[in-house]
Design brief:
With 170 residues, the chain is mostly beta strands. Helices cover 11% and strands 42% of the residues.
Length: 170
């Protein structure tokens, strides 16, 4: 009976470990971009370790920042998951339809590759500054956070009038 229970427990553990398949994908913060703005591109590897990440050429874009690398590991109820991500901020050079080409990474499961991702760049005659998707907290516009902006109006501080002291001689 103990051997049978041990066998089922080992089988269940093996099934749970195999259920977490290695994934490698790409996401963009904005897929329709106004010219002169940027988008955040993130390549994310999940449930395995990776090495030798090869980013695409980013044809039609200027790399504003990146690659920024982040890694996370979590263990919840005995189930471990890990992820590795590489992110870039890209600025479009001209109007048109572009693709973020495939990136590759080596893993224990073999060579994984992302799918090409389309990005539409449209004219921006008014010079509008676009922000990332509001629901995505990772697209914080840190470029704008360093600009001083207009000075705030500061009211002059009012001093309390001092009470006059009286000196008495005795």
């Amino acid at each position: 009976m103990k051997k049978l229970t041990f066998f089922w427990l080992c089988s269940l553990t093996l099934v749970l470990v195999q259920a977490q398949e290695a994934r490698f994908g790409v996401s963009v913060s904005i897929d329709s971009l106004l010219l002169g703005n940027y988008t955040r591109v993130e390549f994310k590897l999940e449930n395995t370790t990776g090495r030798n990440f090869q980013a695409p050429d980013f044809t039609g874009f200027r790399v504003v920042s990146g690659p920024s690398q982040s890694m996370s590991t979590s263990i919840i109820n005995g189930t471990m998951s890990q992820s590795l991500s590489y992110s870039y901020h890209l600025e479009a050079l001209d109007v048109g339809n572009y693709y973020i080409e495939a990136a590759t990474i080596e893993t224990d499961a073999g060579l994984l590759q992302t799918d090409p991702t389309p990005v539409l760049v449209v004219p921006n005659p008014d010079g509008i500054k676009q922000r990332g998707a509001p629901s995505d907290r990772s697209t914080f516009d840190w470029f704008d956070s360093f600009s001083p902006g207009p000075p705030a109006e500061v009211a002059p501080a009012r001093k309390k009038p001092r009470k006059k002291r009286r000196n008495y001689r005795l």
